[in-house]
Amino acid sequence: MDPSKPVYSDALGRPSASQSVVYALPADAKAENYRLNVQHDMLKVLVGGLYIVPDLVKKALDPAQRGKRCGVLDVGTGSGIWSVKAEPSLLRLASYASLWARAVEMAKEFPDADVVGMDLVNPVNLTEIPPNCRFEIGDAGLDWSRYAGAFDVVHMRSVSTGIKDFKAVLHNVAQTLRSQGVILLVSPTAWVYSETKESLHDRDQDKPGWSAMAALNEAIRHATLKRGGASATVTDHWAGWLAETPFYTNVGEREFWIPIGPWKEGLDESERAAAELLRQSAIEVLSYFKPKLLAGGFDEDLVDRWSLAAKKELQTMEPRLYMLWKFTWATRTPEP
Ligand SMILES: C[S@@+](CC[C@H](N)C(=O)[O-])C[C@H]1O[C@@H](n2cnc3c(N)ncnc32)[C@H](O)[C@@H]1O
């Protein structure tokens, strides 16, 4: 496929390599890139870097051990920030200068690896692309044969709702990874949770503890399913699916409860920063919900009321809310 010639448009009119119309949020809007970059900062603060299992990743990307130049694939690369350092926003620089200064994005951290960012659309706003990084248009739900045996690390973050058959994709990633290569899966889980970590997705509006943010999140999940996308509940199956195939070993999983906003007592500096960045990212995401919800058949008045109420919740941090992010990983079994 010639990446410079997208052949389809998706439901939002974006140029796309395929007819994949299941992804529910825009990937090429400037503001969406900003949100993704804030979220990226939040996740980096959370795990102290670009990936959660440094020993496995560094071993997989050590050319001396691997005996050849290594490869990294970032599936659903979005703004491309995980693959290559993007233009930092003024706000991010002002608020989190010390964290940003610690940042070493993937292509820079591993100059001896070739990093490929793949997405339905090309990233925008990248000011500097190192020679060891490139971007390709592709649909993870389609053919992976061009990537067979080509990579040592495959990273997939927040792409689960854009992929109908995630189990099949895990199989395709296994064919893509070289022996001892690492798969890194990262995603928020499906729900928004209360201060006591109860899911609020089915809480009645007239019951205490109801949250407009949780209601909107659940509405988006339904709208995504309606347009043929997948539910974020797929994250519940990742570790089991990886463990049940002979292609993967060292399966691991870690969960992070992140307060939406620094309302919780006793947070350390990093946890506080992550909570605030999550709050900023949640405020940004509200503006994308409306068109998706109207397309999904939701009533406009209701969506407007909930959006206004959700913004107030995020600004006041009342009710106190959590999100749960999941990091799952495994290594490719050695070839027989
Ligand atoms: C929420 S963004 C996450 C971007 C990036 N991974 C990050 O964490 O910052 C999801 C991205 O996945 C892309 N995407 C969704 N479904 C996809 C698919 N089937 N194949 C390739 N990319 C996909 C979208 O276009 C979007 O850029």
Q: Can I get a quick summary?
A:
This protein has 336 residues and is an alpha/beta fold.
Explain what the structure shows:
- It comes from Tulasnella calospora MUT 4182.
- InterPro entries: SAM-dependent_MTases_sf.
- The chain has 336 residues and is α/β, with parallel strands linked by helices.
- It has one domain (8-332): 3-Layer(aba) Sandwich (Rossmann fold), CATH 3.40.50.150.
- The protein has helices at residues 30-47, 54-60, 63-66, 90-102, 106-109, 166-176, 212-226, 238-244, 269-295, 300-316; strands spanning 8-9, 15-16, 70-75, 113-119, 133-137, 151-157, 177-193, 248-259, 322-332.
- The strands form two sheets. Strands 5-4-3-6-7-9-8 form a seven-stranded mixed β-sheet, with helices on both faces.
- α9 packs antiparallel against α10.
- The two termini are 32 Å apart.
- It binds S-adenosylmethionine (SAM).
- Residues 20, 23, 25, 27, 36, 40, 76-79, 81, 119-121, 139-141, 157-159, 162-163 line the site of S-adenosylmethionine.
